């Protein structure tokens, strides 16, 4: 990241100054590397990036016919070279060599990568927009006056002179109902995300779009019962270690965001010992459980552990630019790490992230009533508490599993936003979405994944030193404990706390062992309270054009008077207003 921009121009109306303006909207630092402003009069494209991966010049050309721009990287280059019998030094070259040889995009399903790409066929006058299997690296597109326009960030479209910025009212509803937009919808009418596993083909002469998937969840082959859980756990452990090794190669500055959870801990344990020094960063309130647990784990690994303090003083300030960096995709409430992006820069070039490991391996979104069941609106409503049927499920969901919906929506549109913010400073890698892991874990019956059954077995067998005795932040107990033992320990802790309250009513200060923040309280303190009131009460506020201001101001009054907790709704409204000001009034931009 940050990414790709470009447009077709059949009438040759625009010049590269507009392309440069679009690209500059994706730039957050002067040290970014800019690719050439490519133009042949019809296709205009460029790229800006961090200069960490794919350092060769872009575009990469093959003869006078093909030009390609890739944002991101492949992790199985050697396997691809062997299968297709090609010799290539870079991902760009590898892509074009295989495509030129096969004259098909079928090979895309074999790429294990985290990337987006633009391919221009100058001979046939086609532009292709391409996403990887899971679509976590954002890529937006739209048709503007019969021309194709693309950008890795939504804000890039603001640089196109023919673009009319109109807010999609359904997108507003989804943001306040779900906390994010669904599927491929964006804030802007007529602009969408390129779906996962997709090739969008644009015929320049006919101004015609064709959209095709090259992979879907239904390609996964199920294994039948009976299965041996020990063998499954061992194989999952092998694949997991292999995935991390592919994403943590020698001589790279690798680091990790480490919490008190399971997923980031597993990544730290799996990082090859050749990576020294290794830095682990944990943010939270002083002495919260996440920090205490992460420190213990870092000591076992021999990693340098850094505490990033979250407090009430300036928590909201750094999240304003987080809204700009994330295209307003989530509430600033969830931008916990946005304050520390520069810290990550100083310790690492690549961050391994436990991104959605609890969903993939732990089955956190599974329900026993819907094992081996295709997603339905009832299942979505039960999990999200939203009563609306927002869209029809397409071929992406043609599999008897419910997880693809949550991967494509909750993970891609919500969880992913943290990576998007951090990606302006460093590169991210997400080992739980290795192709081999996904195909393997979703081939087994849901009941074995439910309640982290197989996942916990794998963690205990593969990394016992990290899991046998060290607590999990969610329960306060190691995952080696039985459910009954966890209940007993928690009951004992509650009794001890109550006794301390009775014995020392004035001196006892109860420590919040779960939360690493206290947003309801922080929102009532002076700086945040003043900022909220100033922005939401302003006569120049834009949000009243889209949502009921009386309701929001009522929430504001009730929360500040401590009548009720409305911190979630207020942070959503504040995020929305700041994003609107950034779009229409150029305020609050970095």
From TrEMBL:
Domain Glutamine amidotransferase type-2: 1-205
Reaction it catalyzes: L-aspartate + L-glutamine + ATP + H2O = L-asparagine + L-glutamate + AMP + diphosphate + H(+)
Pathway in which this enzyme or protein is active: Amino-acid biosynthesis; L-asparagine biosynthesis; L-asparagine from L-aspartate (L-Gln route): step 1/1
Pfam family, one: GATase_7
GO molecular function (one): asparagine synthase (glutamine-hydrolyzing) activity
InterPro entries, alphabetized: Asn_synth_AEB, Asn_synthase, ASN_synthetase/amidase, GATase_2_dom, Ntn_hydrolases_N, Rossmann-like_a/b/a_fold
GO cellular component, one term: cytosol
Keyword flag ATP-binding: yes
Biological process (GO), any one: asparagine biosynthetic process
Keyword Nucleotide-binding: yes
Family stated for the protein in its record: Belongs to the asparagine synthetase family.
PANTHER family with a match to the protein in the record: ASPARAGINE SYNTHETASE, ASPARAGINE SYNTHETASE (GLUTAMINE-HYDROLYZING)
Stated name of the protein: asparagine synthase (glutamine-hydrolyzing)
